[in-house]
Amino acid sequence: MTENRGAGHLGTQQLIRYAILSYWAIFWLFNMVDKVIGGAHFLWVGRDRFAQFQKYFDSVGLDAPHVANAALVVAAALEAFALLFFATAAFREFRGHHDEAHRNALVGTLFTLGTFTFFSIGDHWFGDRFELLEHTLFWFVSLASWAAFSQLQPMAESTQGALPRRETLLAAVVGAALVLATGTAIFKHNTTDFIKRSAAITAEPAGDHLYKVSFPFLGGSTVFENSLARFKEDHPDEAIDHIYTVPGPLRLKKADALIFYIATEDRP
Amino acid sequence: MKERRLIRCAILVFWTLFWGLSVVDKIIPDVRFLWVGKDFFALFIKFFGSLGLKDPLFATCALAAVSALEAVNFGLHAAALASFFKREETVTDRRYFRAILASMVLFSLFSIADQVFGDRFQLLEHGLFWLVLLASWVVFRHVPLGDRTISLSPPKSVRWTLIAGLMLTVLTSWSIFQFSEATFSNASAPVQGEEVVEGVYKFDFPFLADKRVWEATVNTFMADHPELDVRYIYTGPSELNSKKKTHLLLYVFTEPRP
Q1: Does B150 reach chain A within 8 Å, measured CB to CB?
Q2: How many CB atoms lie within 10 A of CB A250?
Q3: Which ipTM score applies to this complex?
């Protein structure tokens, strides 16, 4: 069994090995947490996998919730084992037991590859090409990270020397100046623009019984509702006939946020 | 089983399934019981229609050619997998090389078509698949994977990991079943509206809701408010949603009945 020489002599290859194992352990840990929590709560949104699986199986005619539950349990089992093997590998690697770490990371990688293969079968079956691409990419990332991990030598000497004192000082001064400039800009923007998260927008006349509302990027359902309330207050003699949302292709790419028109008619 | 063999097996199984299911998707072209898949015929018809080739013969011939190439890819991958299981290493390498080459040719053809039809998202998708194929072959053939053996009877430390994995699976399964039981009614129950502006009601649809929930919601709302006329229903665009937390917002505009 190969042993580490201590944290003071970490080589670049050893650091990348830590990074790979930590990444996958954290990746699967948060997937498990997402499954255990289930649904959106205060401080956690996650993804409603039950709703996603239920809709997939319903689309092929299997609407019983037990089918979606069973598929989720299989996915959860694969993810649980991937998590535990990567977590064990990371623990062993930090303790300097590289052979043990290697064996656990290999099993963790096989569970990861198996999980994404399982998901890819579902993507073909349910016709979700975007998820197929996503899962194939994750499958490949797992394979590539294993290839990198297995080639890196835990005992290799560091090829990185320390930065010269002058360069370090210069980097620190420039870095601090940039942090100050960006920090000031961000806080200033927050002071002037956060109000747009809820403030009502006044509709501008755009034609006969037609009004235009241009949303700010921060606008959401609260802005929409407040804007409607203001519109009703400002135009008590008109009733809303319908609302037309300007589709994406008609907007000026990223410069325009949501735009909609309110068409009205005179109240009898 | 040796480490190298395990990784190679994972690569071959993934791509054999990938092409096998792509062929199945072409054999079952429509939505059926137990299969949805993707309607490539409709996609091809639209692509060729945009070029001015409205005759369905063009799309049909193109789809038949693509299906034939996918069947060849599947056959080559399946042959490589079969020789892998027979432990014929040289034959496996040769067959897998042919399979990868044929697959890359197919994705190159797709990419040419994406440029002709101006579909940049599909171009990115096919470019990425092409890259993953290439990288899979590099890992399969040229990365010196270790010769360590993974024993089928694991050591004591691994046995503890397996026990912990089983316990974690049981815990997660319990949570999944609880959540399923608590939320499954959302797949059919009508959503309750909230009057956000005078005469305007907001409905925050859950993730499980579909067209049946929409119908139940509108009918229930009308039955509960016989004094109101529904004048207009507005589907809130995605910009109104709080990112991943909201699924669908619906606004119902009403007026008092005369």
Answers
A1: yes
A2: 9
A3: 0.90
CA distances from B87 to B84, B91, B92, B94 (A): 5, 9, 8, 13
Return the structure tokens found at B125.
Answer: 């998708």
Phi, psi of A207 (to 5 degrees): 170, -170
| Cβ proximity of B220 and B201 under 8 Å | no
Angle CA(A13)–CA(A15)–CA(A17) in degrees, nearest 5?
A: 70
- The per-residue pLDDT for A6 is 44
Residue contact B150–A107, C-beta within 8 A: yes
Question: Within an 8 Å CB–CB cutoff, is residue A257 touching chain B?
Answer: yes
B249 touches chain A (CB under 8 A): yes
Reduce the DSSP state of residue B251 to 3 states and report it: strand
Please report residues of B whose CB lies closer than 8 A to that of A76: 169, 172-173, 176
Q: CB under 8 Å to A154, separation ≥6 — which residues?
A: A2, A4, A11, A13, A14, A17, A93, A98
Answer whether B10 touches A (CB < 8 Å).
yes
Chain A CB within 8 Å of residue B170 CB: no
Sort out which chain A residues have CB atoms less than 8 A from B137's CB and list them.
none
Residue B22 forms contact with A (CB below 8 Å) = yes
Residue A189 has pLDDT above 70, yes or no: yes
Asked whether the beta carbons of B22 and A125 are under 8 A apart, the reply is: no
Q: Is B32 exposed, middle or buried (0-12, 13-18, 19+ CB in 10 A)?
A: exposed
Q: Where are the alpha helices (DSSP H) in chain B?
A: 3-27, 40-51, 56-85, 89-117, 120-142, 156-183, 211-224
Tokens describing residue B234:
């507005």
Report the alpha-carbon distance of residue A145 to residue B226 in Å, rounded.
62
Structure token digits, residue A149: 């991990």
Interface of A with B in 28-67 (CB under 8 A): 32, 35-40, 45, 47-48, 50-52, 54-55, 58-63, 65
Tell me whether strands A210-214 and A204-207 are parallel, antiparallel or unpaired. antiparallel
Q: Which residue of A has its CA nearest to B23?
A: A124
| Among candidate residues A221, B246, A185, B75, the one with its CA nearest the CA of residue A260 | A221
B239 interfaces chain A, CB cutoff of 8 Å: yes
User: Phi and psi dihedrals of B97, rounded to 5?
Assistant: -60, -45
Is the pLDDT at B155 greater than 80? The verdict is no
Which residue among A77, A85, A225 sits closest to B196, beta carbon to beta carbon? A225
- pLDDT tens string A130-177: 999 999 999 999 999 999 999 998 876 666 667 788 999 999 999 999
Scanning A38-126, the segments in alpha helix (DSSP H) are: 49-59, 65-94, 98-126
As a whole number of angstroms, the distance between CA A58 and CA A51 comes to 10
pLDDT band at A9 (very low <50, low <70, confident <90, very high): low
Task: Say yes or no for a CB contact (<8 Å) between A241 and B13.
Answer: no
